[in-house]
Amino acid sequence: MTNSSPPRTSVLQDLRDSGIEIYDNSSLSALITCPRMFYYRHELGLAPRQEEPPTPLQFGLSVHLSLETWQAHSKDDKRAIERFVESFSPYEEAPTIGKSGKELGATYTVLYGCSLLGEYFNKYRADVREIVQLETPLAEEVEPGTYIAGRVDKIVRGSYGLVFVDYKTTKYMNDFLINPNPQFMTYKYMCEKLTGEKVSGELDVLGVSKTKSLSELLRREPFDYTQYQMAEWKKSVTALIKLVAQYRRAEFWPQTWRCRPFFRDCAFMPLCTLPSREPHDRLVEEMYEVKRWDPFQEQTD
Distance between CA atoms of 61 and 58, rounded to whole angstroms? Predict the structure, then answer.
């Protein structure tokens, strides 16, 4: 007997369709930036059709896949490097021509990524803490019937207890804010609810720069939050969720006109700059597709 039901495309969306409210840090950040963006991206699940992921984003994903492979296979450097090359090669940045006509070398290259990973492997090979989980999807209730979800890179057990670890690849390694950081507070909350133990955090930064040595680009920083800080985080999350309910009741999602977050045009600017309502639905159909992020699905390149 064959199963004629459609394939499951999103665990989270199945739960949402059943009436369970689930949010993650990306959706709440979008809500803060612009409720209209939240509506298009997270209520409707829209994403631009056939859009290639930005090279820095794909570089970060490929580094994550390599580090997961390294940890899961007894710190096998060769296997981990091969995973990075396989994932990132199609997205490698090409050299550009500067204003003077000279060729400018690319930053996000396979060679650079392999060198950075090799430096990381050598620096942290002696870390013998027990790995409890790798790439762990979690969801925990923040108020009755409402959950917050995310995917934790790594959970380890050391001499001082459980620690969740987050990897970041960034050009702005000295500007990364740890406190407050809603993503990390979310991870702490979920890990402690899951384990029933106190859990602290650790940030592993793999910097991206053509002017610094590889050893300067690696930083490991432990951190934690107090009960008061976590209580304030939880109250803020629940207040934001109430805003979603308010916008739904009003059937209106206001614009905040932050149209260039991170110095790139918002993906939904074409919809927000229409001269009239008439072409809206046609433009949605032509330019966008339904594509939702789901931490419970296997992460691929």
Answer: 5
Tell me, what amino acid is at 203? L
SS3 of 175, please?
Answer: coil
155, β-bridge pairs = 133, 164
What does each C-alpha distance from 301 to 61, 65, 94, 190 come to in angstroms? 7, 8, 19, 26
pLDDT in tens, 31-63: 999 999 999 999 999 999 977 778 999 999 999
Q: Does a cis peptide bond (omega within 30 degrees of 0) precede residue 180? A: yes
Measure the CA angle with vertex 80, ends 76 and 86; round to 5°: 150
212-258, pLDDT tens digit by residue?
Answer: 999 999 999 999 999 999 999 999 999 999 999 999 999 999 999 98
Q: What is the dihedral of CA 255, 261, 266, 267, to 10 degrees?
A: -130
> What is the structure's pLDDT at 7?
40
Q: Look at residues 46, 42, 86 and name the one whose alpha carbon lies nearest to residue 63.
A: 86
Long-range contacts of 118-122 (CB under 8 A, 24+ apart): 118/77, 118/81, 119/214, 119/215, 119/217, 119/218, 120/67, 120/204, 120/206, 120/218, 121/70, 121/75, 121/77, 121/80
